[in-house]
Write a structure and sequence with these properties.
The complex is a heterodimer of chains A (about 110) and B (about 110). With about 110 residues, chain A is mainly β. Helices cover about 0% and strands about 50% of the residues of chain A. The N and C termini of chain A lie far apart (about 30 Å). In chain B, strand 9 (about 85-95) and strand 10 (about 100-105) form a beta hairpin. In chain B, about 35% of the residues are buried. In chain B, the strands form 2 sheets. In chain B, strands 2, 4, 5, 9, 10 and 11 form a 6-stranded mixed β-sheet that branches. Classes of the chains: A mainly beta (about 110), B mainly beta (about 110). The interface between A and B is medium-sized, with 32 and 25 residues.
Chain lengths: ~110, ~110
């Protein structure tokens, strides 16, 4: 186990709704990265938070947003959900803001109907 | 666009044999590489990493080889066990790229026959 936790484990939403996913990083880690993993694919980088600031972003639209809190836990928010947003959402924690040695949580399975 | 890819989407080996999982990357600006193991219903598990200033790194039962000349990465698993059955991903990080941006390939499914 990595010590990275995510909640909820599963979620079903309707198209157009909004969702918030949560991640607690491993003890001692101050950096959280979020990824989207579609079925049968490798994870795709959404963004990274380091010391409560966005520290890098992948090719995702602005309706994907996030937060990092002083205890380094993080939230991923997705507005105006689309069917293609159905995926496993993974967070990974690391230290130092470089993105090296990222340790993943178990993920949140989001289904949009 | 440039991407990390894998030569073999599936690999079936006998328990006790050695496994070699290959990965081709196309971005010469990548300076950091990681292998992950992902079991069904779980998040990717860190196995081993290597930086571009190295060509080999060993862990417990695993070895990663990096050949920058041909942009090739491999993961060798010694004495493969049934518990090694999973999907294996290689991932690369671009030097100077967006922090935290690991670029993953599609994965290779390793199946270990008892």
């Amino acid at each position: 186990e990595t010590g990275v936790t995510q909640s909820p484990t599963h979620l079903i939403k309707t198209r157009g709704q909004q969702v918030t996913l949560r991640c607690s990083s491993q003890s001692g880690h101050n950096t959280v990265s979020w990824y989207q993993q579609a079925l049968g694919q490798g994870p795709q980088f959404i963004f990274q938070y380091y010391r409560e600031e966005e520290n890098g972003r992948g090719n995702f639209p602005p309706r994907f947003s996030g937060l990092q809190f002083p205890n380094y836990s993080s939230e991923l928010n997705v507005n105006a959900l689309e069917l293609d947003d159905s995926a496993l959402y993974l967070c990974a924690s690391s230290s130092g803001g470089t993105g090296d040695e990222q340790y993943f949580g178990p993920g949140t399975r989001l289904t949009v109907t | 666009g440039e991407s990390v890819g894998l030569h073999l989407p599936t690999l079936s080996v006998q328990e006790g044999d050695n496994s070699i999982i290959n990965c081709a990357y196309s971005n010469s600006a990548s300076d950091y590489f990681i292998w992950y193991k992902q079991e069904s219903g779980k998040g990717p598990q860190f196995i081993i990493d290597i930086r571009s200033n190295m060509d080999k790194r060993q862990g417990q039962r695993v070895t990663v080889l990096l050949n920058k000349t041909v942009k090739h990465l491999s993961l060798q698993i010694a004495a493969t066990q049934p518990g090694d059955s999973a999907v294996y991903f290689c991932a690369e990080k671009l030097s100077g790229g967006s922090q935290g941006n690991l670029i993953f390939g599609k994965g290779t499914k390793l199946s270990v026959k008892p």
